[in-house]
Write a structure and sequence with these properties.
The protein is α/β, with parallel strands linked by helices. The protein has twelve helices and eight strands. α10 links the parallel β5 and β6. The chain is elongated, with a radius of gyration of 21 Å. It is found in: Cell membrane; Cytoplasm. Keywords: Cell membrane, Cytoplasm, GTP-binding, Hydrolase, Membrane, Nucleotide-binding, Receptor. InterPro entries: AAA+_ATPase, P-loop_NTPase, Signal_recog_particl_SRP54_hlx, SR_rcpt_FtsY, SRP/SRP_N, SRP54_GTPase_dom, SRP54_N_sf. GO terms for molecular function: GTP binding; GTPase activity; signal recognition particle binding.
Length: 317
């Protein structure tokens, strides 16, 4: 299809291809077995395809949507060969992702009408939250933005220390207090400092505890309220970081956090080294929240802006 034109640089595309290699190999191994000995897309092939999609962590609800779309194509075209199934899948998944993701971005940008643009980052410990913040800071700085970080995950000394390491590495200022300090107080100080420094982007880390949803909700609400004393409509983006390698567990985390706060975008990390890349498709569809960034490697450059066309192109390459 014409919309699968190349948007990424060849280097970024190569990183994306490599990062999705295990997911793609696993998916096509299963798909090839599902259509073995078949020449047309019939009910048996669709049943097998359903099983392939579910086992690839696309999720049951999203899988059913994809199967329904393919059934419409089959009934309309009357005869579809299994050779065409790859192209049909590619088109229908891209179409499904289009409903949530604008999909044509390739660079790290922020709206010009919000200064500073405030991003509050949420997610459980261990999903790559701090690393994502560090890589985001690097990418925004690379684009010429003035970036300030805030260490509002004050429940773990390690979280503050890790963010300091990233701030030093990227050479951006970090606003922090001692462990156990009030997270809202850190957020307030961060925004005051950012305004004074005429910062373009502020990224604030928050605690990743899920054992008590009510406490989490109250804490994030308080952080937001205190931020708004400095920047009236902050935060402009609530970014939920999910570990793509956990498959269905990532769905559960998304469910918990979207119930606790208003999540506006997603970052799916650790897609390299896992066969569960299909989770990006399911989470994007099920929660109707755009996937903004994906992690496809350990390098500082390996956090990418999510582009649905490039993602689908790499997945089905």
């Amino acid at each position: 299809m014409s919309f699968f034109k190349k948007i990424f640089s060849s280097e970024k595309k190569e990183t994306l291809d490599k990062g999705l290699e295990q997911s793609k190999t696993s998916f096509f191994d299963k798909l090839n077995k599902a259509v073995a000995g078949k020449s047309t897309v019939d009910d048996a092939v669709l049943d097998n395809l359903e099983e392939v999609l579910v086992s690839s962590d696309v999720g049951v609800n999203t899988t059913l949507k994809i199967i329904e779309r393919i059934e419409v194509r089959v009934s309309k075209d009357k005869y579809l060969g299994t050779d065409e199934l790859n192209l049909i899948l590619r088109e229908e998944i891209a179409s499904l992702l289009s409903e949530t993701n604008s999909g044509n971005e390739s660079e790290f940008t922020v709206p010009q009408d919000k200064k500073p643009h405030v991003i509050m980052v949420v997610g459980v410990n261990g999903v790559g939250k701090t690393t994502t913040i560090g890589k985001l800071a690097f990418q925004f700085k690379k684009q010429g933005y003035n970036v300030v970080l805030g260490a509002a995950d004050t429940f773990r000394a390690a979280a503050i220390d890790q963010l300091q390491v990233w701030a030093d590495r990227v050479d951006v200022p970090l606003v922090k207090q001692s462990m156990g300090s009030d997270p809202a107080s850190v957020a307030f100080d961060t925004l005051k400092s950012a305004v004074t420094q005429n910062a373009d982007v502020v990224i604030i880390d928050t605690a990743g505890r899920l054992h008590n949803k009510v406490n989490l909700m109250n804490e994030l609400t308080k952080v937001k309220r205190v931020m708004q004393k400095v920047v009236a409509d902050a935060p402009h983006d609530v970014l939920l970081v999910l570990d793509g390698s956990t498959g269905q567990n990532a769905f559960e985390q998304a469910k918990q956090f979207t119930a606790a706060t208003e999540v506006t975008s997603l970052a799916v990390t650790k897609l390299d080294g896992t066969a569960k890349g299909g989770v990006v498709i399911g989470i994007s569809d099920q929660f109707k929240i755009p996937v903004k960034y994906i992690g496809v490697g350990e390098g500082i450059e390996d956090l990418q802006v999510f582009n649905k066309f490039e993602f689908v192109d790499s997945f089905f390459k």
